[in-house]
Structure formats: C-alpha cells, structure tokens
Amino acid sequence: MTSPDYSKQGYKEIVTSLENSVLSITINRAKYRNTFSIELFDDLVHIFDLADRDDSVRAIILTAEPTAPAFCSGADISGGWDVLWKEESEKEGEHAHRDTGGMLSLVIYRCRKITIAAVNGNAAGVGMTALHLPFDFRFVWAGAKLTFPFFAAGSILKVRLLTNHNLTLNLFPSNVTYLLPRLIGHSRATSLLLTGMTVSPDSPYIQSLYHQILPTRSEVYPAAKAFATELVANSSQMAVAYTKGLLQHPGNSIEENHLLDSRVIKLLASSVDGAEGAKSFKERRVPKFTGVLSKDSSPWYPWWHRVDVRHLKTKL
C-alpha cells in the first residue's frame, strides 16, 4: 500500500514525522500544559489506527516537546464535565458511556507495530494511563513526577501541585486496573492507585515499568528514537505482530499455549521473512525483512475473540 502523508491529515494537537519506518508523534499542547483534550483524543486514535495499517510504519513513538510544562498533566475539563459525555450515550443511560482514555488505550494496545512512550516530563492521570501503559516500551526522564490521582482523598490537590494548573482533574482509569497490575504486579499497583502517591521513575513501586530512565528531559526522545531505529532494522513486521499477540493473548494452559506457539513458528518459518532469516544466517549477514501485514498476515491472525465494545443504540 502507498504510505499516507501524515503531514496532511489535518491533526490539530500533534506534530508528526516519519523517518526510517519510525513514526514520531509529538503532543503539541504546551500552552495548555499538554492536557488531554477531545481533539487530542481524536488525533491519537486516528493516527494509531492509520499507522497500524500502514506497511511503511514499523515503530511508533509518542512524546512531547521537552520544554513543555508536562508530558501530559491529565484531562482538560476546563469546559466542565459535559465534554466527557456524548449526547447519544446520555439518552441510553450510564451503561452506554465509553471512557475516551480507555478507548485510546485499546487502540494503542491493539496496534500491531512496536509502540514506545517517550515520557519526557511530568505525567498524571490519563498521561499515566492511556499515554503510558498500553505501549510496548516506556522511556522516561529521571526527574519526572508521576501519579495516578484517581481514587485517593486529596487527589485534586496532588494534581495542582504537580501541574500548577487548577483546571485539571483526573478521573480517567483508562483500563489502568487491567494493565497496571499485569505490568508491575498487583501489590505495587494497589499502592499506587489507592494512595494516589506521587513517585519518581526510580521508585521501587514503579521502576520496573520503564525500559530506560534518562537523566535529562532532552535525552528521552533521542534514546527512544535510536532504540526504535535499531529494532525496526533487525525485526520482522510479522514476527512483531505475532509476538505481541502471544504476549497479550496467551493460551489458557501451557498445552494451549504450545499449540499457539507452534502455529506461529510454522507461519513465520514458511513466510518470506522466514526464508530471509535462514538465508541471512547462512550468509552471516544482517537480514532484510520485507514481509508486511497487509499482504503476508495469515487469516488465522488474530486467533482470539475480539470483543466489540461499541454501544448499539436502542433508542431513537
């Protein structure tokens, strides 16, 4: 497929660049302390969906300008709570609401490409959830202040201290109770969520979440970019997608997982990338993988049942 021109997508809250198969996305709301807006949500959902289907993209990095007040300081509800609710779901009732942070988390989590969060500033609320947890890798500035201010008493005060911005309130779990315990363990996740404590990346509560902790803000994105560039140069697009699938959707038993692993091995070994891998091994050179998801993915993938989270209207 022909790669889309990301500069012509009409994005309002992000800046993009595509280089050597690495798509970089920069949050561009410094004036508003990089708060999470509906426009930012729309831009990110669109670009992650587009990049997932674009064969020329092999890795995606999300970051922010290192001079901005924060990587993301939470949700912007300066216009009131009504910005969170859609008229259609309001007619149906509370069961019809779909959390925007959670919707974005699903889009990023399901992305078949390598995803990297380059957290080069303070992060709170949705900045710690949808813009943090569903990524494959996380690079972070050592001096960042990090908090999940959802359930603890005094959370509004904590966010004000973190951002110096009293119009930000974070009530967006964004699948955090599913993802965080699986990433860092149930005990540490409980401590972070129920206390709402503010921690630094080297805290024993959260340190294991990060692939690399960098001493300065300006070092975070370059480190993530170098890492992504090396990964895409030496990995198969098909192998990445299948491996992510196995990590996120393993079998219910070791026997079932063995069957899934075996089929993935058969598919990859029989593919153009499998042939190139064997040839490059024999010739003692770096492989040049050319397989792409749009042409070479098996109809068996995804092998798991995908839940449709859309709410179907029942009222006119």
TrEMBL record:
<comment type="similarity">
    <text>Belongs to the enoyl-CoA hydratase/isomerase family.</text>
</comment>
<dbReference type="Pfam" id="PF00378">
    <property type="entry name" value="ECH_1"/>
</dbReference>
<dbReference type="InterPro" id="IPR001753">
    <property type="entry name" value="Enoyl-CoA_hydra/iso"/>
</dbReference>
<dbReference type="InterPro" id="IPR029045">
    <property type="entry name" value="ClpP/crotonase-like_dom_sf"/>
</dbReference>
<protein>
    <submittedName>
        <fullName>Peroxisomal enoyl-CoA-hydratase</fullName>
    </submittedName>
</protein>
<dbReference type="InterPro" id="IPR051053">
    <property type="entry name" value="ECH/Chromodomain_protein"/>
</dbReference>
